[in-house]
Each structure stands twice: as structure tokens, then as C-alpha cells.
Design brief:
The complex is a heterodimer of chains A (337) and B (269). With 337 residues, chain A is an all-alpha fold. Chain A contains 17 helices and 2 strands. Chain A has a two-stranded antiparallel ribbon. The chains are: A mainly alpha (337), B mainly alpha (269).
């Protein structure tokens, strides 16, 4: 009898890698700890270089975006092509509230985060209500992202237009310090990983997996697909917004291109695809590797775009499931032999 | 509006091509280099159109192979991601090698008055070419056996296979035609404004919006949406200002998706 259970366990291909490991609490905390240990000493290695610390900070911000996007796209299959716009809502929202309206820093970040979450949830709610497929969700969120970008450019009186804004508030707090803001960002990464991990351990995890494997079957067996989708978009949107706001303050200046589609969404997509869509640690692995690759490519100038595009092509042609699941299946094959 | 008219093949075959604008730009560059090399305008344009078609074929033979191996949403998703990657490669390469080149086709002669409104000869010729291309396409899909075979694949791949139509060949034909049309878009657009290397993404987005509004897979829908959006755009641009008009255009597209997910003239599922 016990022999029969083994093959079914190994046979679950999609989502199998995380299926069992996400069960116990220590299995959740261990990867978190590993990520913290790997990323914590970075400021001591790069501390002297302003440029490299900026890169590291951006990398962590992207890790945050990618975790949020992973929750929305990887867990519930909604292709949100407005990650940059959501981060922009967080970033511009918080900065405008703090600088123009004189809100306290924490409050303005909080308000902007909630706003980004609500927008994400609203987009998802609309998509679910109209039962749009992956593509239409993608197109409508892309349209939203483009509209938001044009709004930023158009309302130059508020946003500073193309050249962007220099941020006054926040520089006297810990976010004005490069190393401390790195750790603040790292804390966000770990927090988001924890939230995503906990969500997957709860009944949400079952819902996510059920609706990703077979939406129709999930709906029929009483899984409230709409609710899971909207909640995932709400939480994911808030994550992206919060990261965008914190990144804006710690960088000290923002411009529309900080949150543009080509600068954010494409990169996030590559990072997630590289790390593995729907895996817990995929986003952070993808973010680390990709940030390093991108930094090495800086010298190429315009060729960077070529390399980025080529990377997307190679990734989706040969490892469409991402590095972690692919490695995982290699290991599992070995175990069977 | 010109780019709009010719998006029809774009949404067909169950795959999206986000490198569409880049295909148009590449064709424009072929025309440009041919003219640089001393080729007269008309043969150069012909060369551009042919190269557009060849690009379509190349696309089909390379990255669309794994795409067509999939079905339904997985196919759309993969095509979207792969062509996005391709668009970046092309864009990056073009802006690296020839950053400031643009194709302009000057149609001589002053403006012509039509009903009291002065129209530039270039725009008139471009509109005429667009309309002719449309009529030809429409005729092709309605009247010829090959056109009907292509439509059958678009509507029901399994069914088409059962009655003896090879979907793979029809999909290849669709991509070749799409490349050819992208080249026409580039050429007609060059008659009105310069086609620069950075225009690719803009063409793609506009084409995407028009396709979605008109209804994926509907030719008259694409034409209608192109005309309507063109009018909305120019009215909004002259009364309100450019940045809001673009947002209005996007909002109109968004609303259409929400109110009629299948598009103005799309087939209801």
C-alpha cells in the first residue's frame, strides 16, 4: 500500500516542487533565513561604492516587485502588466503626499500602499467580473499602465514631467542613509516572502493551486475563484506599491521612467521566468542573478536591450518553467534512478 | 489610423505578435537602405514589402514553432513573451546601429482641397493604399478557397484539420501576410510622418488597441475600430490636448474590452 503512494508524489509536476516543502513552518523559515544570510553582508562588501549600493537597492526593490507579481500571476494566473504603474502609484503617491501635502512619512507611505493595493484589487475585480482571460487581463492592465505613464508625463506641474522629482522628505530619516535603507528594503523582501509563504500554507494555498491547475474544476468544487484572485491582486498590489514608495524615498528622486513598462514590467517578467513562476524563492533568485547580469551589461550601452530581449527568448524557449523547477525535476529524476 | 487599418492579421491564429511594430520598422529600414544604395523609390518599396513577408516567414520558422505546438491560452502567453523578447532585441539593435535614421517618402505636390478641407497628397495616397489593401484582403478571405481555408483555421483548428486543411501551413501564411501588411503600414506611414527606429513600440501598441477594440479576428471590426479611434484621437487632440487625448484613447479601448469583451464586431464565444 505504501509503495503506491510514492509515484503519485513524484508525478506531480507543476507545483510539485513547492507542494510538500511549504507544509511545515521550519521549511518556510529556512529559505527565508538563507536569503537573509546571503543578502545581509552585501553592504559590507559594496559599502564604499555609491553606484553599486544603488544597484543593490534597485535589485531588492525588484525582488519586492517580483514577489508581488508572483503572487498575482504565479499563484492565481492573472497577467498583470502594470507592475510598474502600481509601484508608481506607491512611489508618486507617497512622495506627493509627503512633499506637497506635508503628510508624515509613515502615513503617506501607508496611504500610497493602500491605494496601490486597491487599484490592483479593482483591476482584478473588473477582470474577474467580466471573466477576462489571461490575454485580456494582460491587455487591459497594459492599457492602464500606458495611461498612468501618460498621466505622469502630462501632469508635469505635479510630477515634474520627464525629468522627475527630487524628493525633500525622508532624507532626514533612516531612509536617507544608503546602508540603512538597504536593510529596510531587505526587511521588506523578507516580509513579503513570509506573507507569500504564509498565504500558501493557509487555505489560500489550496485555493491558489486548485484554480491554477484547473479553474473550472476548482469553481465546481466550491473554490471561490473570484475571491482568491481579487485578494491575491490586493495583497500583491499593496506589496508592489509599498516597495515603490520605500524605494522612491531611499533613492531621493523619481521620474516616470523609474516606473515605466519597459523598465519595470519587462524586467520583473524576466526575473520571475528565470527563477520559476509560482515558486516561493524564484523571484528573489531571479532578482539577484538578473541584477548581477544587468550590472555586468551596463558597459554595452544600447546592446543591453538586445541582451535583455535575447535572454527572454532563450529563457522561454528552453527553460519555460524557470530555473528552480527545472533543477527540481532534475533532482527528482535522479532520486528515482 | 493607417497603422490601425492593417492590424487584422495580427490577432489571428491564436497568437499575439508584440514584435509587429518592429517588423514594420525593419521593412522601413530595408526601403531606406535600398534608396540609399540608389534604387529608385518604387522598386525600393517593393523590396521593403517582400522583406516584410520574408520576416514573417522567418518568424514562423523560428520562434513561432514552439508557440504553435501549444493550445489555447498557453499559446497566446508564450507568443506574447517570446515576441516581446524579440521586440527588445530588434529595438536595441536598431537604436544601437542606426539611432537617428528615419524613412520619409515625399509625395510631391501641394495640398488638395476636398470639400474645402486641404489634405496632404501623402495622406491621401496612404489612405487610398490602405483602402485598396483592405478590399483585396476582404476579397481574398471571402472569395478564394485559400482564404476560406485560412479562416477555417482561425475559427476552429481541430475542425479545419478534420476537413483536410493543414493548420500549420495556414498559420505560416497568416504570419507571412502579417509581415507584408506590417511593411505596408510602414510605407504608408512614411508618406505622412518619418518612420524612425524608435517607432516600433508605438505602432505595436496602437495596433494592439485597435485589434482589441475591433474584435480579435474580425476584419470589418478592425477597419471600423481604426476609423473610429482615428476620429476620436484627432478630435480629442484638437480640443483637449495631446496627453489627455491619448489617455482618452486608452480609456476608450479599456471600456470596449469591459463592455464588449469580444470587440465591436467580434465573434461571441
Amino acid at each position: 500500500m505504501s509503495d503506491q503512494a510514492v509515484p503519485t508524489e513524484g508525478a506531480s509536476v507543476i507545483g510539485g516542487a513547492e507542494g510538500r516543502s511549504a507544509r511545515s513552518l521550519s521549511a518556510l523559515l529556512l529559505p527565508l533565513l538563507a536569503a537573509a544570510v546571503v543578502l545581509a553582508p552585501v553592504p559590507f562588501l559594496l559599502g564604499d561604492s555609491r553606484v553599486l549600493m544603488g544597484v543593490a537597492l534597485l535589485g531588492l526593490a525588484f525582488a519586492c516587485y517580483t514577489i508581488g507579481f508572483n503572487l498575482i500571476f504565479g499563484s492565481t494566473g492573472q497577467l498583470f502588466l502594470c507592475v510598474g504603474a502600481l509601484a508608481g502609484i506607491g512611489g508618486y503617491g507617497a512622495v506627493l503626499l509627503a512633499d506637497r501635502r506635508g503628510f508624515p512619512l509613515v502615513l503617506s507611505i501607508l496611504v500610497a500602499t493602500v491605494a496601490a493595493g486597491l487599484v490592483g484589487g479593482l483591476l482584478s475585480w473588473v477582470a474577474v467580473r467580466r471573466s477576462l482571460g489571461v490575454i485580456f487581463t494582460g491587455i487591459i492592465t497594459l492599457i492602464f499602465a500606458l495611461a498612468f505613464h501618460n498621466l505622469l508625463l502630462g501632469r508635469g506641474d505635479l510630477t515634474g514631467g520627464e525629468s522627475g522629482l527630487r524628493i525633500q522628505s525622508g532624507s532626514d530619516t533612516f531612509l536617507g542613509d544608503r546602508i540603512l535603507s538597504y536593510y529596510a528594503m531587505l526587511a521588506l523582501v523578507l516580509l513579503f516572502l513570509l506573507v507569500h509563504g504564509l498565504l500558501r500554507r493557509s487555505h489560500f494555498g489550496w485555493g491558489f493551486r486548485a484554480l491554477r491547475d484547473d479553474e473550472m474544476a476548482a469553481e465546481l468544487t466550491g473554490v471561490n475563484v473570484a475571491r482568491y484572485r481579487v485578494i491575491a491582486a490586493l495583497v500583491g498590489g499593496a506589496m508592489v506599491g509599498l516597495a515603490g514608495a520605500v524605494y522612491a524615498f531611499s533613492r531621493g528622486r523619481i521620474s516616470p521612467s523609474t516606473f515605466a513598462f519597459a523598465q519595470v514590467d519587462v524586467v520583473v517578467l524576466v526575473m520571475l521566468a528565470f527563477g520559476g513562476i509560482g515558486t516561493l524563492l524564484g523571484p528573489i533568485l531571479g532578482a539577484i542573478v538578473f541584477t548581477i547580469i544587468d550590472e555586468l551589461l551596463v558597459e554595452l550601452g544600447q546592446l543591453r536591450l538586445v541582451a535583455l530581449g535575447a535572454l527572454i527568448l532563450v529563457l522561454f524557449l528552453w527553460v519555460p518553467r524557470g530555473i528552480i523547477p527545472s533543477l527540481g525535476s532534475v533532482f527528482r529524476k535522479d532520486q528515482h534512478r | 489610423m493607417l497603422a490601425a487599418g492593417l492590424t487584422l492579421v495580427y490577432g489571428l491564429g491564436g497568437a499575439l505578435n508584440l514584435a509587429y511594430g518592429q517588423m514594420a520598422v525593419m521593412s522601413a529600414m530595408v526601403v531606406l537602405f535600398a534608396m540609399d544604395a540608389g534604387v529608385p523609390v518604387l522598386p525600393a518599396v517593393g523590396l521593403g514589402l517582400v522583406s516584410g513577408a520574408i520576416l514573417g516567414l522567418l518568424l514562423d520558422l523560428t520562434i513561432f514553432r514552439p508557440v504553435y505546438r501549444r493550445q489555447g491560452e498557453a499559446r497566446v502567453l508564450l507568443s506574447l513573451l517570446l515576441t516581446l523578447g524579440l521586440a527588445f532585441v530588434v529595438d536595441g539593435f536598431l537604436t544601437w546601429r542606426i539611432p537617428f535614421r528615419g524613412l520619409t517618402l515625399n509625395i510631391g505636390g501641394g495640398p488638395i482641397d476636398i470639400l474645402g478641407v486641404p489634405m496632404r497628397r501623402g495622406s491621401l495616397l496612404a489612405s487610398a493604399i490602405t483602402i485598396v489593401a483592405f478590399v483585396l484582403l476582404f476579397a481574398f478571405f471571402r472569395a478564394t478557397a485559400l482564404g476560406r481555408a485560412v479562416r477555417s483555421v482561425i475559427e476552429d483548428e481541430q475542425g479545419a484539420r478534420l476537413v483536410g486543411v493543414d493548420p500549420r501551413r495556414m498559420l505560416r501564411l497568416i504570419l507571412i501576410m502579417s509581415g507584408f501588411l506590417a511593411a505596408i503600414v510602414a510605407v504608408t506611414r512614411a508618406m505622412v510622418t518619418p518612420v524612425t527606429v524608435t517607432l516600433g513600440f508605438e505602432i505595436t501598441v496602437f495596433a494592439l488597441i485597435v485589434t482589441v477594440v475591433g474584435g480579435l479576428g474580425s476584419f470589418p471590426g478592425a477597419l471600423m475600430a481604426g476609423v473610429i479611434l482615428g476620429i476620436v484621437n484627432s478630435i480629442a487632440a484638437s480640443y483637449i490636448g495631446t496627453f489627455l487625448s491619448l489617455i482618452i484613447l486608452l480609456a476608450a479601448a479599456g471600456l470596449t474590452i469591459l463592455l464588449r469583451p469580444s470587440g465591436l464586431l467580434g465573434i461571441r464565444e
